[in-house]
Structure formats: C-alpha cells, structure tokens
Design brief:
Elements: H1 2-19, H2 21-37, E1 50-56, H3 61-72, E2 76-81, H4 85-93, E3 99-103, H5 107-113, E4 120-123, H6 128-157
Parallel strand pairs: 1-2, 1-3
Antiparallel strand pairs: 3-4
Helix pairs in contact: 3-6
C-alpha cells in the first residue's frame, strides 16, 4: 500500500508539472540549456603570466638556468627577485604575487654532484586556480631542468664501459 501510494503521488506531481507549461520548461528544459551555455563563459579562462616572485639564495649558473626556464613558461611570470623568503611571503600576502620560488644556497652544488636539487615552491591559497597553474608551469620547468642536468652529467661521464669479453653469453 505504501509504495503504491508513493507512485501515485509521483504520477500526480508530474502530471501537474506537465499541465503547467512554465513549470515544465523550468524543470526539464532549462537545465539542458543552462548546461550548454554555462561553460561558454569560461572557455577562454586560461591562466597566463601569473605573478611569481623569486628568492635565489644560490646565484649559480644552475639557478640562473632554472630561472630562465621558469620565465619562459606561459603560466608564470617572475615579477620580482627578492632577498628573502619572508619578503616573498609579504608579496603573496599583499596579493602582488600568487606563488614564490625559493632556490636555496647549495642548489648548484647539488646539481653538479648529480643529486636532485631542492627548490621550495609555495602558492597563495586565496588564488588557488592562478597559483596552481603557475606552480604547474614552474614544475614543468623544474622537470626540464632536471632532465637536462642528467643528460649533461651522462655526457660528461662518457660512454659506458664495454662489457668484458664473453659476458654476452656468446662464448
């Protein structure tokens, strides 16, 4: 009895909605139209040249190479080179930057030793879309810098030594 009564109520409700043309348009047609038009306002919303500040405590060729690569990505633009992480934090708090790159002292030495260099990236949470896009571009630049460093180290090491005679199992 309960299920039959519930279905009867649903049928009555939908019959009443179908009888009222305005209600039917509002409930059934407008969501389809809305779903089609809503995204069109955001089709050109691609983050480009988000303001990023830099703190380069290393000042080596490796850090300069990284900076050049970061400045070349579409998503980020280095707007200032600052002396300290505290200063970078102030720039982000004031809304003048959405992200910061901090290259610590010793970055170039780490790269030269063949170990991964450490870089601190931070973003402003109030500008989540812009900050995450800028940090994504910076991450791509970091990845390319790492690949280039590994390639350069492999080139400097020379070709791998030849396998000893008979090591290939043909002997």
């Amino acid at each position: 009895l309960g299920a039959a009564l519930m279905w009867a109520a649903f049928r009555g409700l939908f019959a009443a909605i179908a009888a009222d043309r305005a209600a039917a348009l509002l409930l059934f047609i407008s969501p389809v139209i809305y779903a089609g038009f809503y995204p069109s306002a955001y089709t050109d919303e691609v983050v480009t040249r988000a303001p990023v500040v830099l703190v380069d405590l290393d000042r080596t060729a490796a850090s300069r190479n990284l900076i050049v690569r970061v400045d070349a990505v579409q998503q980020a633009e280095i707007v200032a080179s600052l002396p300290s992480a505290g200063e970078a934090e102030l720039w982000m708090a004031d809304g003048r930057a959405v992200a910061a790159i901090i290259v610590p002292a010793g970055f170039g030495e780490e790269i030269a030793r063949g170990t991964p260099g450490t870089v601190l990236l931070t973003g402003h949470g109030a500008y989540l879309l812009r900050a995450s896009s800028a940090l994504g571009g910076i991450g791509a630049a970091l990845g390319q810098t790492g690949r280039d460093a590994a390639r350069e180290q492999a080139r400097a090491a020379g070709p791998p030594p030849a396998a000893p005679a008979g090591a290939d199992g043909a002997g």
